[in-house]
Design brief:
The chain is an alpha/beta fold. Helix content is 42%, strand content 16%. The strands form 6 sheets. Strands 5, 6, 7, 8 and 11 form a 5-stranded mixed β-sheet that branches. The protein has a 4-stranded parallel β-sheet with strand order 4-3-12-13. Helix 4 crosses helix 7 and helix 11 runs parallel beside helix 13. The longest helix is centred in the first third of the chain and has 22 residues. The chain is globular, with a radius of gyration of 26 Å. The relative contact order is 0.11.
Length: 484
């Protein structure tokens, strides 16, 4: 199928065509491993996972997918330092070597990140590389020298800065987002990795050594400049070394458009001579209960926070994938419950397709396939794709379908699940597990409540059973408990 994607460069949906035959080179901004990734981060990673799956399954492409690991920046240095209070016993013993402490600290959170994405259905095996920034210091230094040699950077007090004024005389600075140049002062420098105001500054490529911080030796024209890389330069060097440039698609959250991605474009072209990639694809923000997520607001959640509350990570995945990536996603606990019910409706239908019940209705499955995957190919429109599935299910009960139609639908759901990865394509009979006593007790109480026509209580007990990982399917005289 022809894949179409919204390109942040052109500000419109465009037909996508790879630069290199049938292979797509995809780069995703990954985590900064100084803490557990929060659910806003996870939306970005889920978007990238959805994209690479649709490219492979609907587009028929081979995908080389790279996600970087930021293991050196302001935050990782701050929190790995002695006395920061962020050190965990699981990381081992802190040393007197800041570089060794940084390694131990970030390696711990890197391993935890892999556990989180695997729980969320993102297979680390689908990633061709998870490069860590500290493994590419020499490549960053090479790029910085290239930028200096081309006249777009300068040294000041042991640090190296990108000269935005000179770059603007050669190319556009502000390709992804409108930049405030009204308050721009040539030569005004900024050292921090992240800043919120969309005001241009000369940004740091290499930060001079500070006491107590890890550092690497570096020299420019024989001038010693020991220190460490700025945040923005990391991605440019890793993209070039692993994927080559130009590559096809770069993903990330909208919050990275400026300064991070804008600076990537400038420094890559200033050093390597070409724009880094053809498509920039950004997912929108995640909110919690309609508000910006923050620790001060008490609505800040990591994935493991939600799992500890008894929420199935597959329901988090399905909930996020049920919304279009280009719209703000409002995370609510009621929304998660609704997503769980919707996911289990499809799961129940898949189970029913495996039942050995002969119906006589024949359905044209290819029409459903074309419709559902057509929506996915059109800028990853998951809400429309799911709506087409639910409409089909409502109009075609599984027990009325012929065996030929059932087998074709099972194949379709298997293909569809290769994108969503939230269902089990099997029969109920193949799932054998002892139902916990608590679930059995709730089911019996619900059965009695229904007999007594206490419908509100019956619904409440059904939801509690579902929260414990089971759905209850009623028949004429009894019920059946099914593991989710």
């Amino acid at each position: 199928m022809q894949i179409k994607l919204f390109n942040s460069l052109s500000k419109k949906v465009q037909p996508f065509k790879p630069l290199y035959g049938d292979e797509v080179k995809l780069y995703s901004c990954g985590p900064t491993v100084y803490s557990y990734a929060h659910i806003g981060n996870m939306r970005s990673f889920l978007f990238a996972d959805l994209l690479q799956r649709v490219l492979r399954i609907a587009g028929g492409y081979k995908v080389q997918w790279v996600m970087n690991i930021t293991n050196i920046d302001d935050k990782t240095i701050r929190d790995s330092a002695k006395g920061s209070g962020a050190w965990k016993p699981e990381m081992g013993y802190q040393t007197n070597d800041p570089k060794e402490n940084l390694k131990l600290f970030t390696e711990y959170y890197y391993e935890e990140f892999i556990k989180d994405i695997e729980a969320l259905g993102i297979r680390s095996s689908d990633l061709d590389a998870l490069p860590k920034a500290t493994d590419y210091i020499a490549h960053m230094q090479d790029l910085i020298r290239r930028i200096i040699d081309n006249g777009y950077a300068y040294v000041a007090k042991g640090s190296v800065y990108f000269d935005v004024t000179k770059w603007r005389n050669s190319d556009i600075y502000g390709k992804l987002k409108k930049i405030d140049f009204e308050n721009f002062k040539p030569g005004e420098r900024v050292d921090t990795d992240e800043y919120e105001k969309e005001t241009a500054h000369d940004f740091v490529l290499w930060k001079g050594r500070k006491d107590g911080e890890p550092f690497w030796n570096f020299s420019v024209y024989g001038m010693p400049c020991p220190g460490r890389p700025g945040w923005h330069i990391e991605c440019s060097a890793m993209e070039y070394e692993i994927l080559g440039i130009p590559f096809d698609i770069h993903t990330g959250g909208v919050d990275l458009k400026f300064p991070h991605h804008e600076d990537e474009i400038a420094q890559s072209k200033a050093g390597y001579g070409v724009d880094p990639n053809n498509f920039w694809c950004h997912n929108e923000f995640l909110e919690v209960e309609g508000k910006k997520m923050s620790k001060s607001a008490g609505n800040f959640y990591t994935l493991r926070d939600l799992i500890n509350k008894g929420i199935d990570p597959l329901d988090i995945r399905f909930s996020m994938l049920s919304a279009h990536y280009g719209t703000k996603f409002n995370f609510t606990f009621d929304g998660i419950k609704a997503a769980k019910k919707a996911r289990l409706r499809i799961q129940d239908y898949i189970y029913d397709l495996h039942e050995d019940i002969d119906g006589d209705e024949f359905v044209e499955v290819n029409m459903l396939r074309e419709e559902a995957f057509g929506y996915l190919a059109d800028d990853l429109h998951t809400p429309k794709a799911l709506a087409s599935i639910f409409t089909f299910m409502n109009e075609n009960p599984a027990n009325e379908l012929s065996q030929i139609s059932k087998k074709a639908l099972i194949d379709l759901f298997r293909e569809f699940n290769n994108v969503f990865a939230v269902w089990i394509i099997t029969s109920r009979a193949s799932i054998v597990e002892e139902v916990p006593a608590e679930v059995k007790d709730l089911a019996e109480r619900r059965f009695k409540a229904k007999a007594d026509q206490e419908w509100a209580l019956a619904d409440e007990l059904r939801d509690r059973i579902q929260d414990l990982g089971y759905i209850i399917k009623d028949n004429k005289y009894n019920y059946e408990l099914i593991k989710i």
